[in-house]
Amino acid sequence: MKKDKNGTIMDELMDSKEAATIPKVGDLIKAKVLSVGKNEVYLDIDGLTTGLVRGRELADGPNQIPDLKVGDEVIATVLDQENEKGLLELSFRSAGHQKTWQDLQKIKDNKETVEVKVKEANKGGLLVSLNQSVGFLPVSQLSKEHYPRVEGGNKSKILEKLKSLVGQTLKAKIIDLNEEEDKIIFSEKEVYAQDKKEQLKKYKIGDVVEGTIVGLVDFGVFIEFDQSLEGLIHISELAWRRIDHPRDLFKVGDKIKAQIIGIENERVTLSAKNLIEDPWKKAVLKYQVGQIVKGKVIKTDNFGAFVELDQDIHGLVHISELSDKKIDKPDEVVKVGESYDFKIVSIEPEDHRLGLSMKAVKENQK
Question: What is the C-alpha to C-alpha distance for residues 34 and 31, in angstroms, rounded to an integer?
Answer without folding.
Answer: 9
